[in-house]
Amino acid sequence: RIITAATLTGAQMIATGQLHAGIFCNSDSLEGATVAAGKSCGDLCFPLVFAPELHRKEFASSVADMKNSVADRNNAQSSCAATFIYDHLAPDYSGEFLHVDLAGPAAFKGSDRGTGFGVALLLALHGKL
Questions:
Q1: What pTM was estimated for this model as a whole?
Q2: pLDDT (tens digit per residue) in 94-119
Q3: Residue 62: per-residue pLDDT
Q4: Residue 120, Cβ neighbours under 10 Å: how many?
Q5: 24 with 53: CB under 8 angstroms?
Q6: Whether the Cβ atoms of residue 26 and residue 97 lie closer than 8 Å to each other
Q7: Element (H, E) at 21
Q8: Which residue in 21, 34, 65, 103 has a CA-CA distance of 20 to 30 Å to 12?
């Protein structure tokens, strides 16, 4: 399985706010384990749409393999960003994928200091897998 975590998009905050990370996963069991891990440790997260087959077109380019920004800013930007990461895995990868977009909960509002969000989530998730 591949698990990534990053402050990928500010659009995550529109979907889940500053207290919950958005998660994108191709496995129901890994998604459920991640939500449960978040509840057990306090690093809360909520599943968002992960449908690469619907979002790949956002990165279409006539001069490159793909663009690095979405064509339509109103089309599920966080989900598109997770697709961008997923599409950079090996083409034959068929295992579980989880991305945690923690842009909102990663920083204290009005501060340049980080919260450490995600560390406890990954440790708790590791204990559940």
A1: 0.86
A2: 999 999 999 999 988 788 888 999 99
A3: 81
A4: 15
A5: no
A6: yes
A7: strand 21-25
A8: 65
